[in-house]
Amino acid sequence: MTEQLRESYDVVVIGGGAAGLSGALTLARARRSVLVVDAGAPRNAPADGVHGLLAREGIHPTELLERGRAEVRGYGGQVIHREVGAATRDGDGLAVTLTDGRAVRARRLLVTSGLADELPDVPGLRDRWGREVIHCPYCHGWEVRDRAIGVLASGPLSVHQALLFRQWSDDIVFFAHAARPTAEQAEQLAVRGIRVVDGEVAALEIVEDRLTGVRLRDGQLVRREALAVATRMVARAGFLAPLGLRPAAHPSGLGEHIPADATGRTEVPGVWVAGNVTDLAAQVGGAAAAGTVAAAAINADLVAEETRQAVAAYRDPFSPVSEAQVSELVAGDRRHGW
Q: Which domains does the chain have, with CATH numbers?
């Protein structure tokens, strides 16, 4: 069944994760017309639970999103499962074209489309992602506590990642893979009891649908029950290119993001971002909070615009702005049969 869409919304939210739904909820409660367009591919889909989220510890990602959508709809917001093809400038507003060919106008955009994790090219790694292959100790550390954990050197923070996971287990192996630690880093790993294994990792060893070890190119098998990997994180924001808004290198060196100020406002007028699309390290709670902050900033921006228009209409009742407002009122009356 095809959802009925309005021609125009105050705000179109692109992305229906924690950031997008929190922003949409705030805007809907502010009596704004809101459309959430969600592609249905959340980053944390493989995870068995959301952790570190106050009062919702361990909730399944799917349940969290279902609750969020229901809350947004409860305040009159609209949520659809579609993919955005492009966002473009449309007069004094913006246009969002879906991949099914439909298009809607928006006075403002809130982009919360998240990021994609690019994993090293090691056979078996992607299949175990979100299960025994993990990345964040604060998201998964408790679940793998006291187990045999490996850390695959795959980025500039891999040594830091190994030192962090040492907090949850005293059995940590650092796989140097293609990047040996520096002398200073090797010393840090050694004093924390973290063994360094040289050689390229060839594949993961899986027995009865469980990770049992990491196999090196020379055939050596190192027994492990979990493997931490620092991914390269890239913002899902290709649809913003027509607006001249493209991902930029993140200062951490961990990937690419859409830069923005503290409220989520980007360099493109009318476009805000929140969550992992701009903050690569944001967990669910932080992303949700950022969505709320951006939504409040968007609403304030709309209020300021509406006030300027009201002042202009008051000062000059025959201005183009006044005529446009009258035309909109007349069109609304006709739509309602008045």
A: 8-117+232-323 (3.50.50.60), 120-229 (3.50.50.60)
Are the CB atoms for 224 and 150 separated by under 8 Å? yes
Q: Which amino acid is at 147?
A: R
- DSSP assigned state of 182: P
Separation between Cα atoms, residue 112 and residue 8, nearest integer Å: 19
Helical residues (DSSP H) of the chain, grouped into ranges: 18-29, 61-74, 137-140, 158-165, 183-191, 284-315, 320-335
**Following DSSP, what letter does each residue of 195-258 receive, concatenated?**
EEE-S-EEEEEEETTEEEEEEETTS-EEE-SEEEE--EEEE--GGGGGGT---EE-TTSSEEE-
Give the integer Cα–Cα distance in Å for 144 and 261: 36
Residue carrying structure tokens 């989520």:
264
User: Could you read off the pLDDT of 236-263 as tens digits, one per residue?
Assistant: 999 999 999 999 999 888 899 999 999 9
User: What band does 41 get if pLDDT is binned at 50, 70 and 90?
Assistant: confident
